[in-house]
Write a structure and sequence with these properties.
5 strands, alpha/beta
Length: 153
Amino acid sequence: MRMALDLAQAAADTGEVPVGAVVVDEASGTVIARGGNGPIGAHDPTAHAEIVALRAAAGTLGNYRLTGLTLYVTLEPCTMCAGAISHARIGRVVWGADDPKGGAVIHGARVFDQATCHWRPRVQGGVLAAEGAGLLRDFFRSRRAGTAVVAER
């Protein structure tokens, strides 16, 4: 999760919402892929940290099925990311801060609880939650104050 927090800070430094994600093979402890939020810089509304990390992991492994891997992310995944996690068959999702407005695991759509969800990972929230929430709070506070960094376009 510390690595994911570093990626979140790097995203914030470029004007992106500070969210970071890391895919790990728990059996070996190997980091398979990393991702930071990048919709603004990539001009891609799907470039959430989780999606970036899942794409990189699939490329690294040469397989879109990511069974047996754990995704660490600094913020509870949204509906889009939860759907991608299910399709990739990630074994476990661990997040930091809950997202009462946009989250879709324990808030909102609760994607993994739906009868139509074909794959349900094990889930755990609240890991280093205060640090992830602090990054988000500081980012949006500075943005409202007009002092946020703007991503290169």
